[in-house]
Amino acid sequence: MPENSQKEQPRRRQARGERRIAQLLAAAASVFCTTGYTAASTNAIAREAGVSPGTLYQFFPNKEAIAIELGDRLMHEMRETYGEALAPVDPATPLEEAVGAAVDRFIAFNCDHPVFFALMHGPDIPGRIAEEHDALHATLVSRIEALLSSLLPDAPPADVTRTAHVCLGMYKAGLELVLAHEGAERDAYTREIKNVLIRYLEPLVGDRLGTREAPDTATTRTA
């Protein structure tokens, strides 16, 4: 057998393996969203993927291993998302624009990957996922603190930390409502989250960001 063909075979097998893993993870995401992590089974995931349980076990020993791999990939992508969403804000940017851009990025990620919310907020998620989610949460709070510190240079650190936790708490509470709706209602709930955050931050930030007025709540709701 030519040397080039010998080199190509492992690469083809690796590519097929990666495609199969992606297929199984997509199936697991669908099952976890439909039934929740606790009620999901490897048989259901294999059935959703259109493969035999034996094929699934070639790649994952159990349901927990699938959830951990899926969670790892999602959290990596989430870190990239909040890195972009919480980048330093140009002082000329109006507050509603800065808040809107950040919320839109996070909402888009969660709507594209609803299993992230299902896994991270389920009652019986694997311990490793819970630990990594706690670390992700802490890092996210730190990024929000850094962003707020540039907007609130005179605020005591404890106040900045408290404000960061409140902002994240309001967003996460609203996210559950957003994911529970679709279409125009989902857009409406997204606008409400933005309005809540803007109204909360406006008196704190003052005129440190652009002076364009935030949209009127009544107008926004009927838009």
Provide the descriptors you would attach to this structure in a database record.
mainly alpha; 223 residues; 0% strand; disordered C terminus; 10 helices
Rg, nearest Å: 22 Å
Q: What does the main sheet amount to?
A: none
Helix content: over 70%
DSSP, total strands: 0
What does this structure look like?
The protein has 223 residues and is an all-alpha fold. The chain is 77% helix and 0% strand. The protein has 10 helices and no strands. The chain has helices spanning 3-35, 42-49, 53-57, 63-85, 95-112, 114-120, 127-151, 157-179, 183-205, 217-222. The longest helix has 33 residues, at 3-35. Mean pLDDT is 86; it is low at 211-223.
In brief:
This protein has about 220 residues and is mostly helical.
What is the secondary structure topology, with strand pairs?
Blueprint: H1 3-35, H2 42-49, H3 53-57, H4 63-85, H5 95-112, H6 114-120, H7 127-151, H8 157-179, H9 183-205, H10 217-222
